[in-house]
Fold this sequence. Notes:
By secondary structure, this protein is of the alpha/beta class. The chain has a single domain, classed as Vaccinia Virus protein VP39 (Rossmann fold). Helices cover 29% and strands 20% of the residues. It has 9 helices and 9 strands. The chain has helices at 4-18, 32-39, 41-44, 65-71, 83-96, 133-143, 190-193, 210-219, 242-248, and strands at 54-58, 75-80, 100-104, 118-123, 144-155, 183-184, 205-206, 222-230, 252-259. The strands form 2 sheets. It has a 7-stranded mixed beta sheet with strand order 3-2-1-4-5-9-8, with helices on both faces. The chain has a two-stranded antiparallel sheet with strand order 6-7. Strand 2, helix 5 and strand 3 (100-104) form a beta-alpha-beta unit. Helix 2 crosses helix 4 (65-71) and helix 4 packs parallel to helix 5 (83-96). Residues 56-151 form the Methyltransferase type domain. This is Ubiquinone/menaquinone biosynthesis C-methylase UbiE.
Amino acid sequence: MQDDVYRYNEERWEALVEADALFTRPMLDLDAEKARAYLGLERLGIPGDLTGRRVLCLAGGGGQQSAAFALLGADVTVFDISSGQLERDRSAAEHHGVTVRTVQGDMRDLSALDGSSFELVWHPYSLTFVPDCRVVFREVAKVVEEGGHYYLMCANPFFSGLTHHSWNGSGYPLTDPYTDETVTSYPDQEWVYESSGSRIQEPREYRQTLSRMTNSLIQEGFVLRFLSEVRGDHPGAEPGSWAHFTGVAPPWLEFVWQYRPGALDSPWTLPGR
């Protein structure tokens, strides 16, 4: 179903590819050691031996994570809405002499994966580009195998829509209501484009409250294994700068969930009972 959300995201990401934005640049200087450090699997508690493991890079095109996983011996599939992003995955794979499978589509409908199952679903920042995270999580539960892991990196919902431009001289005030599917839009950070000088339309993002994300994943059969608030560490950073903002209001969260349907079905018992 190609609705307005699909069309907006596809057009914007094709424009980002054209503008050579940071997240569209394939990583061409990787080797196995750099790939391992880049992914940080040990820090996340995800088993590090990827040889032959089936990995899905969900909404993760651009030739970055896919190349890293493939260099570590994984069987990699990339699923992304942008044909331009997927082309960069293929280019990175050819550069490194590895193989990746690419599939174009919307993360809200993974039927194009033809019943494939994966030991690891790797989902970088993209969840806020769709209104209802529950739809995505239902699809992920269909393609991750039992005991498999789901890495999710997303916006910190408490600070969704805030950037360093919100500085008012004393802080970064919260103004948007903390409700699911609140639409936010703000300029891309300067580092997204770096030296390219290009600018495109602002992202359209939807707040996903922490309770909706957490409870819906639990209901789908996932068990939380790891949580990190991704923040900056820049002592003395100038107030109103991006570096200062990320130390005050951590903009991202990282989760690792394990798919264990039925694990929480038994009733709670008190210690010693």
